[in-house]
Amino acid sequence: MCNRVLITTIILGFLFAFATPEAPPIEKPKLNWTPIGKVESFAKNENKIAMIYVTSKGCAWCRKFYKNTLNNPEIIIKLNEKFRYAKVNISSHAKVEYQGKTIIEKRLGKIFLVRSTPTTLFFNDDNKVIARIPGYMSVKDFSKVLTYLGDDWYKDLSYEDFINSEEKLKREN
């Protein structure tokens, strides 16, 4: 009996001595939404592109885009790195500050000329729309858009030429 206890103690000692410590869990990046009234000025001050995600109550595609695409860790990292972003619910009657005025959130849909939701708008540092994307986008497609805009490819290439050059690079590698 004493030998079994001794052998068990030795084996457990070796296991604990050579066990690798468990790595701490990797924390999922978080979306850092900016209030709509500050997104454009913050983006300009930080040399980032402003993005406004327009949603509405009861919109199934909005929920899917938010859950599957916007909450994807790869997308969150790209957004946090190169963009300042805000969310607008055009079904809401909440008052928000926008361009120095207090308005109802629903009114922003008309200001941004949104015809359907979801719609994602991107603005340059002059507050001009550089991209308007209506509808749902997959993680893969939205990631391409974020690279195109966030890395300033839009200044020199059409989106189509950018995608073609990306595909050509993939084929060559």
Describe the protein.
There is one protein chain. With 173 residues, the protein is of the alpha+beta class. The protein has helices at residues 2-18, 39-45, 60-70, 73-82, 105-111, 139-150, 159-172; strands at residues 49-55, 83-89, 95-98, 101-104, 119-123, 129-134. A four-stranded mixed sheet has the order 2-1-5-6. It has a two-stranded antiparallel sheet with strand order 3-4. The longest helix has 17 residues, at 2-18.
SSE run:
HHEHHEEEHEEHH
- Residue fraction in strands: 15-25%
* CATH H-tier superfamily of the domain at 29-143: Glutaredoxin
* Total beta-strand segments: 6
CATH topology of the domain at 29-143: Glutaredoxin
CATH-derived architecture of the domain at 29-143: 3-Layer(aba) Sandwich
The amount of helix comes to: 40-55%
Q: List the uncertain runs.
A: none
Helix run count? 7
**Mean pLDDT score:** 88
**Arrangement of strands in the largest sheet:** 2-1-5-6
Rg, please? 24 Å
CATH class of the domain at 29-143: Alpha Beta
How far apart the termini lie comes to 64 Å
Task: Give me the secondary-structure topology.
Elements lengths: L1 H17 L20 H7 L3 E7 L4 H11 L2 H10 E7 L5 E4 L2 E4 H7 L7 E5 L5 E6 L4 H12 L8 H14 L1
Parallel strand pairs: 1-2
Antiparallel strand pairs: 1-5, 3-4, 5-6
Helix pairs in contact: 4-6
Summarize the structure in short.
This protein has 173 residues and is α+β, with helices and mostly antiparallel strands. It is built from 7 helices and 6 strands.
